[in-house]
Design brief:
Elements: H1 3-17, H2 20-40, H3 51-74, H4 78-92, H5 101-115, H6 123-134, H7 140-151
Helix pairs in contact: 1-2, 2-4, 3-4, 5-6, 5-7, 6-7
C-alpha cells in the first residue's frame, strides 16, 4: 500500500475514532505533501512525488519536531513537548523501521565501497548513495557523523 493510501486510511480512522492528535498530524502531513506535489509540477512530475521523497519529507517533519521539543524543554513548556512528541509518534507510524547504529555502519561501509570514497571530500557522494538506498529508514544527521568518522573528517 502506498504512503498516500496509508495517509488517507489513517485520516478516516482518526475521524471515526475521534483521535484529534492523529487527525491533526495527518492533515499536516497531507498539506506538506500537497505543497511538495505542487512544487514538483514544473519539473514534469504530474502524478505527485514518489514514496521515497515522501519518506524524506516525513523524516524532515520529525526532525523539525525534535528541534521544537528541545526549544520547548528549555522554555519549560511541558504541554508543547508532549504535543510534539505525540506528533512524532504519529509520523513515525508511516516510516519503515529505523536502522540502528550497527545497521547504519554496515550501510555506510557499503556506500563508501560503492562510491569509492577515500576522504572527507567524498562525503557528498556517500550521503547521496545512502539517501538513494535508505530514505526513510536512516537518521541522516546521525549517519553524517558516522560517515565523517569513517572518512577521517
Amino acid at each position: 500500500m502506498s504512503l498516500r493510501a496509508q495517509f488517507n486510511d489513517a485520516l478516516k480512522q482518526a475521524m471515526l475514532g475521534k483521535d484529534q492528535r492523529t487527525l491533526g498530524t495527518v492533515r499536516l502531513i497531507l498539506a506538506k505533501l500537497k505543497e511538495l506535489d505542487i512544487a514538483a509540477r514544473p519539473k514534469g512530475v504530474t502524478d505527485g512525488i514518489k514514496d521515497d521523497e515522501i519518506a524524506s519529507m516525513l523524516q524532515g517533519m520529525i526532525k523539525q519536531r525534535r528541534e521544537s521539543v528541545a526549544i520547548y524543554q528549555k522554555a519549560n513548556r511541558a504541554d508543547m513537548v508532549k504535543q510534539e512528541g505525540e506528533e512524532i509518534t504519529v509520523i513515525e507510524r508511516f516510516l519503515p523501521k529505523q536502522m540502528n547504529e550497527t545497521d547504519m555502519k554496515t550501510a555506510i561501509a557499503k556506500a563508501v565501497s560503492a562510491t569509492g570514497a577515500a576522504s572527507i571530500k567524498d562525503m557528498g557522494k556517500v550521503m547521496a548513495e545512502l539517501k538513494k538506498n535508505y530514505a526513510g529508514q536512516m537518521d541522516f544527521a546521525a549517519a553524517s557523523a558516522l560517515v565523517k568518522g569513517q572518512l577521517g573528517g
